[in-house]
Amino acid sequence: MTVEQNVLQQHSQKHQQTLLNQLREVTGTTDIQLLQQALQVSNGDLAEAVAFLTEKNAKVPQQDEATYYQTSQVANDRYISVGSQADTNVIDLTGDDKDDLQRAIALSLEESNRAFRETGITDEEQAISRVLEASIAENKASLKRTHTEVWSDSPNPHDRKRMDNCPVGLKNVGNTCWFSAVIQSLFNLLEFQRLVLHYSPPARVQDLPRNQKEHRNLPFMQELRNLFSLMVGSKRKYVDPSRAVEILKDAFKSSESQQQDVSEFTHKLLDWLEDAFQMKAEEDREGEKPKNPMVELFYGRFLAVGVLEGKKFENTEMFGQYPLQVNGFKDLHECLEAAMIEGEIESLHSAENSARSGQEHWFTELPPVLTFELSRFEFNQALGRPEKIHNKLEFPSMLYMDRYMDRNRDITRIKREEIRRLKEHLTLLQQRLERYLSYGSGPKRFPLADVLQYAMEFASSKPVCTSPVEDIDTSAPPDGSATAAGPATAPTAAQQQRVPIHKPFTQSRLPPDLPMHPAPRHITEEELRVLEGCLHRWRSEVENDTRDLQGSISRIHRTIEMMYSDKSMMQVPYRLHAVLVHEGQANAGHYWAYIYDPHQRRWMKYNDISVTKSSWEELVRDSFGGYRNASAYCLMYINDKKPFLIEEEFDKETGQMLSGLDKLPPDLKQYVKEDNELFDKEIEEWDALQARKAQQEKLALATPMSIESSPPDNTGQQDPEYMEQPSPTNDSKHLQEDMERAISKAAAEQEERSPEALLNAAIKVEYTRLLRFAQEDTPPEKDYRLQHIIVYFIQNQAPKKILERTLLTQFADRNLAFDERCKSIMNVARAKLDLIKPDEVNMDEYEMWHQDYRNFRETTIFMMIGLELFQKRNYVEALMYLIYSYQYNRELLAKGLYRGHDEELLGYYRRECLLKLNEQAAAMFESGEEPEVTTGLGIMNELVVPCIPLLLVHDAEKDLLAVEDMRNRWCSYLGQEMESNLQEKLTDFLPKLLDCSTEIKSFHDPPKLPTYSTLELCERFNRIMATLSRAPTECR
């Protein structure tokens, strides 16, 4: 067969499959034989085929929605849809007005068919096109984004530098987390990685007709090779996949946007890869049947055996991703059992020619890479929209497929029959146990053993008093006026003769003989003894019966669990390689992947640009479902008996394992080298820029120090900004008073009156005072570090030379020259500063300590203003102060415990501020008013969403829960009725909220801080911290 004939045949088969898919989608009929019959009768005319099926459905009762899947498809269709869910376009054909319905369907099909004839693009390809268009548009829009959004790269290339041989992440270029999750899962299959890296286009490609496939597949394969080569040898922490996505986008034309589905993308990706490798395989093996490595790697075969209306059939089909329903099942084996058996299977094994229909699937050949697509979305007909299934579904790390193999068909049927019998017996036992555990005939039921115990307790209870109301005068007014007359007042004769009649519905008076607690009124000792004996015996019998039933149920469960545990049924092991996770709802969400590293023997989490170490426990939490909005969407298992799938490549000559650039062919090696050189150049330019800035800052700091030797009557020494206040009413006055006090105390204690002796004594006095402050245990509102830099230095164990020079600098302050004694001490201090040699005090270290203290004061001001604004409920302005105070404080604490403030306190208010803003924005969105909605979404996009990565980056439990609460609040709107414009805005916004990586990126610039004197700063800090300390614990 020529290449042209092969292409035409494949096009014809795909066109026929497209017609079948359209017909199935419109009519809701899943019986392939019936669909093919309709196409044959109608000669390929879809309108007539729909009319044929309409009449057929009018005569034949509608099958249940979970109707079995008939597998007699064309051989080219490798994507099997087992028990597919309802679709948005399914139309009920059982109504009376069939003419109108048929006209509407025919019109719809004509429009769809015309589009296919004009463009040659199927509906599935148009869906892919929509998401790729959206992704590229989002990527282009990202170039115009302001710094308030989270998509920009860090300007510092060191933040983007790959550490050692850590895996390389993929940048999310706009709603492409699905692309990253799938590509990373495939890249970490080393055999697949080798196939892609060493792919070369057919040598005769220039002679072949440049059809649509070649225009699409060959450039895409080259970009995929480039992308894989960067993931192998790049020096970058993450790489940009935009060019590969651009190729995908250019293959189709569409303007709609939607978030792409992982399984659909994987289907199409494997299809394109198969086509690309098929071209190469046909060239390499002329005259022989070519082997396609993609087919060999990802595709298997199963045998479908069954009965259709009494007639037996048997077909062999090829499959790629195997779809499994999640709803109604608790683990992967239950899903597989349901997918492998459909319909009334009893007739499959019987010789009777019954009218029942059903089928079984038996795998005849499993692929090395076995992928299960978990169907977690279903269409809600009532709401008219898809919904996500959040049910918990467990899956094992090692899956044995023996029970599903055709060669084990007979033994599996025997075991299934035994399991069915055991489950029937189990159901009976559970029903019997339920009668013991939920006893009674009313709406409230209790365990029978407890009921008997309660009866025993009641029977043995003794009444406390026979008349609890004897001491209560219910007729007395509440103010006690009746008792004021005294109890000695004798009743009249009429009152003595009058017998009170109890009227329960007209009086509030209690019955006179009601006991204080439930107890028998009359019971003899003999009656009590007999009753207690019976109740005790019955309770023991019930407890024994309950234990026996529970033991029997446990033994049956163990028997079922161990049914396939013998060695003969553990010969086909598949190890879990990757789990693709979806977080969110049906309309929007975020994808990431957990991938097992067999060499490090640990799980890794691939979340766009972030690649982190993980664990099986974290995977279970995020993947099983039922816990959050996150759950597994796709499972990738690999044959554990085929190690070549994950084995590293070795040099044939030296036997050394290949790594990095050595794994690449020459063309890709050169490509990666050039990219690494560009990145190295970027780092060099950044380092040079930072060096220039540092030099400029150093010169600016050194300039005031050069004035130290100038005469006292000149401009003098410029102290650091936390000491520098030219007016004596500010910090200098406070500092001056401290120095004067130290000098006066030293003069009183010191016998020698020379300026140098007084200076040394004053320094000792001042240091002793500050040391006492540093060692004092104070409440949070009284922070001595703000009052004096020396306290900060002492608590953080600054070097002695740094402390000495700082104290000398303070005694050298020109503001001390108000009398002769202080002036002489100041001059001595200045002279000592001049005598300090460069090798005695490291000025770089000195400046570093002083810069740290400036940073501490700035952090304090950020924190103080943020907390003040938070208490005033000005959350919009408070957020940036709290965000930056937390970030700067964290940097300080990384150097030492006493370098900053309480991290938990700052973390709490940062988190609460984001939650309050989220609440405000959600309330605005719920109002439905256009200005309010716009303002609310603006708050989320400009303030909340850019800050979410800050909460995620350190995996703090409370921060993660806060993010989950914020996301859940917005996801909850997906199931509610709302205006179409609100639905559109929500759909546009949710991917930004859900699709956040953990990399901290630029957003708002830090607010400009006012200048405070030390006294003002301490007073305001004291006030705000005292307010917090008086707040309840849960509010701090």
UniProtKB/TrEMBL annotation:
Gene Ontology biological process terms, A to Z: protein deubiquitination; proteolysis
Keyword annotations from UniProtKB, A to Z: Coiled coil, Cytoplasm, Hydrolase, Isopeptide bond, Nucleus, Phosphoprotein, Protease, Repeat, Thiol protease, Ubl conjugation, Ubl conjugation pathway
Keyword Ubl conjugation: yes
EC primary class: hydrolase
Top-level division of the source organism's lineage: Eukaryota
PROSITE patterns: UIM, USP_1, USP_2, USP_3
Listed GO MF terms: cysteine-type deubiquitinase activity
Keyword Ubl conjugation: yes
Enzyme Commission number, as recorded: 3.4.19.12
UniProt region (Disordered), positions on chain: 466-499, 702-735
Low complexity compositional bias, start-end: 474-494
Domain USP: 168-640
Polar residues biased stretches: 706-718
Pfam family membership, one: USP_UIM_N
Main location: cytoplasm
GO annotation, cellular component aspect: cytosol; nucleus
Catalytic activity: Thiol-dependent hydrolysis of ester, thioester, amide, peptide and isopeptide bonds formed by the C-terminal Gly of ubiquitin (a 76-residue protein attached to proteins as an intracellular targeting signal)
Compartment annotation: Cytoplasm; Nucleus
Family the UniProt entry places it in: Belongs to the peptidase C19 family.
Functional summary from the UniProt entry: The muscle-specific isoform (USP25m) may have a role in the regulation of muscular differentiation and function.
Subunit structure: Homotetramer, inhibited form. Homodimer, active form. Interacts with ACTA1 (via its C-terminus); the interaction occurs for all isoforms but is strongest for isoform USP25m in muscle differentiating cells. Interacts (isoform USP25m only) with MYBPC1; the interaction prevents proteasomal degradation of MYBPC1. Interacts (isoform USP25m only) with FLNC (via filament repeats 17-18, 20-21 and 24). Interacts with GAPDH. Interacts with SUMO3; the interaction sumoylates efficiently USP25. Interacts with SUMO2; the interaction sumoylates efficiently USP25.
Name of the molecule in the record: Ubiquitin carboxyl-terminal hydrolase 25
Protein's organism: Myripristis murdjan
